[in-house]
Amino acid sequence: RKEVEQDPGPFNVPEGATVAFNCTYSNSASQSFFWYRQDCRKEPKLLMSVYSSGNEDGRFTAQLNRASQYISLLIRDSKLSDSATYLCVVGNTGGFKTIFGAGTRLFVKA
Amino acid sequence: EPEVTQTPSHQVTQMGQEVILRCVPISNHLYFYWYRQILGQKVEFLVSFYNNEISEKSEIFDDQFSVERPDGSNFTLKIRSTKLEDSAMYFCASSGGQGEDIQYFGAGTRLSVL
What we know:
The complex is a heterodimer of chains A (110) and B (114). Chain A is mainly beta. Chain A is 0% helix and 53% strand. Chain A has no helices and eleven strands. Chain B has 114 residues and is mainly beta. Chain B has no helices and eleven strands. Chain B has strands at residues 5-7, 10-13, 19-24, 31-37, 44-50, 53-57, 65-68, 75-79, 88-95, 104-105, 109-113. Chain B is globular and about 40 Å long. In chain B, 34% of the residues are buried. The mean pLDDT of chain B is 93.
């Protein structure tokens, strides 16, 4: 089983659509969870941290289910500018080792 | 806004040569990382560094790789004898630590080994 596994994608959605990304992780001792976005040939940029209580930032909502070792990201009212690769990132205790999923590519079309 | 700075943006080298990739982390950060991303593949963890020593390293980070914080600002990744398969984008990241574990990434150095 991969350490961090994401939907393979790509996702092609029209503007205004709601899209959900899923991620699972294998190490039950993992302590920190993030969603990053990466534009083509650019560095990963933090989108949001993910907490067990769930968190929301505008159109973006992230959820963590520790029992199922599952992380999700929901994007509502998709914009053209949301087109990017979305990376699920999991860190071990202390954050010394961070594992990235392979990413899910999102294309939002007018 | 504070940022992580990496130089050079693109490094071209011959196979077998040594390269040093440089990074200036965010000034009050305590934890430093190197990652690589081969074109079209995922971001791979190489090494983390804290308190002047390696905290964790991946199986990719073999004897050909080393890291150093030679002064109070720079954090370097050295590849002793480059191979064709070392061609990739190398990202440096830093985090504040002590409960603040969000990592901020530099723009990367594209290494091309010929």
